[in-house]
Amino acid sequence: MKKSELPDPFEKARSAKGYGEMNDQNDPVTMLLRHKDVRKSAHNWKTFTSAAIPGRIVVPSEVNIRDTRQIPFEVDPPVHGAYRAIVEPWFKRPLQPDYQKKLASQISAIIDETLEKGVVEVVNDFALPLQSRALTLLLNTPFHESKTWISWGTHVFRSEGEALDGDKANILYDYIDAQIDRAIKNPGEDMYSVLLSSEFEGRKLTKEEVKGVMVLTFAGGRDTVINAVTNAIAYLAEHPESLERLRNEPEITGKTVEEMIRYFSPLTHMGRVVTEDTHVCEHAVKVDSRISLCWASANRDASVFENPNEIVLDRKINPHVGFGFSHHNCLGASHARQLMKILLNTLAGKVASFEIQDYQENIEDLNEFQRKVGYNHINVKFNPLNK
Amino acid sequence: MAKITFITSANETITLEGTEGSVMALAVENGVRGIDGDCGGVCSCATCHVHVAPDDMDKTGVASEIESDMLELDDNADEYSRLCCQLEISDALDGVVLTVAK
Ligand code: HEM
Ligand code: FES
Q1: Which residues line ligand 1 (CB under 6 A)?
Q2: What region holds the 2Fe-2S ferredoxin-type domain (chain B) (predicted)?
Q3: pLDDT-based confidence at B75, cuts 50/70/90?
Q4: What is the CATH number of the domain that holds B53?
Q5: Average pLDDT over residues A324-349
Q6: Which of A115, A303, B85, B93 has its CB surrounded by the most CB atoms within 10 Å?
Q7: Could you give phi then psi for residue B37, rounded to 5 degrees?
């Protein structure tokens, strides 16, 4: 097996029965594995709600470590749409040329630094700083804030291993509380200030609502981006022909990004709470139990994707659900897509080849399934392209 | 070459000329409101949803299976719905009128 491969642990269960079962802190989850069921259930918020008690739709559950409702993530339509309308224009800013220029210069700088070092531990010393610096653009906050975020390490909520770490969550909450207070005293052009002055149903957003949006923005865009970046580099290390192709045909980069999001599926699954007794794949699910929408499994469904376990750089039809589906689809997707596109283009322009040295895989334990999502650490040598 | 007309939800009418590429790309390049083309045209985002004028359906054809599976879960969709990233510009599309869904 190649070092960069992400095997599909769901294949058997997906074709045989369509679901998997997972226990999580005595609040079991029925995982939906088929593309069709995942999309249908993501759309059906009346039966599968996101508006449960805060933290419950996340797997592993976060009910014991937080009370703040994440917005718009833990809200159903029609209220969801009202919140989403407030934040959507802000999250589309990555489509502006000026934003892309700044992102490109950040990415260029970190690749140059890395080429100078030669060997880098990609997770902590490349992907994490890249993700954190880029987040300053999305939040429109000073660049130096990224130093604080980098110091938190790769997991905002979770310490290494499985345990949910309340202390780490507190660091983030305290930081966000302080930032909100700062923005109230001293409003600026940053995301906190913009949210604080936003109108929602004829009133301003409350501090708690602003906090709910900000926590989600920090949490949702961290591990996901770090895994996407790290997996992309591991893949290119073992597929020099792909790096070469991106150099020669930069016009396919957009399709390559979509394909990498499908194949890597940086977010494995997301839960919903069942509001009425029902069935999924002829399996009864009870009111107040949990299901999950397994994006990673849906993205390998052979009834939708030809050669699902291969990265086809210019896959033309690619209805993947790596960024979710329906009303809750990823708000950070424009940012993530631009980041990945610029990363691939810049690597192709500056790096001749990569060599993977030692590494340790990051395997998610989903009881019935063990899924590789990326690496805990991976040392890679970057060889410069001599022009 | 084809002339393609977009009617936006603000009731603006925009007619654009194109020779190649997808209708989505033409709309995005020209900033047609309501067509974002987030996924770049690989059929995964549905931010390029349009309603074809009924008389023009013979020019565009109906949605493919992949498109209709996606549109089936879109509350705005009807039998004239297409994801316009799947419409390739050619002379055959000359004169079509598309109403932007969003
Ligand atoms: C490659 C990177 C990313 C992947 C694969 C990813 C994946 C996802 C998925 C699958 C969902 C749907 C969750 C659901 O249906 O319950 C989602 C939602 C969301 N993501 Fe991302 N995400 C990524 C990056 C980001 C970034 C960079 C941000 C922001 C900084 C972000 C913020 C959000 C938010 C706010 C939502 C909730 C949207 C809503 O509920 O309406 N994500 N993401
Ligand atoms: S542009 Fe994404 S589906 Fe058409």
Answers
A1: A 42, 72-73, 84, 138, 216-217, 220-221, 224-225, 228, 261, 266-267, 270, 295, 322-324, 328, 330-332, 335-336
A2: 2-102
A3: confident
A4: 3.10.20.30
A5: 98
A6: B85
A7: 60, 40
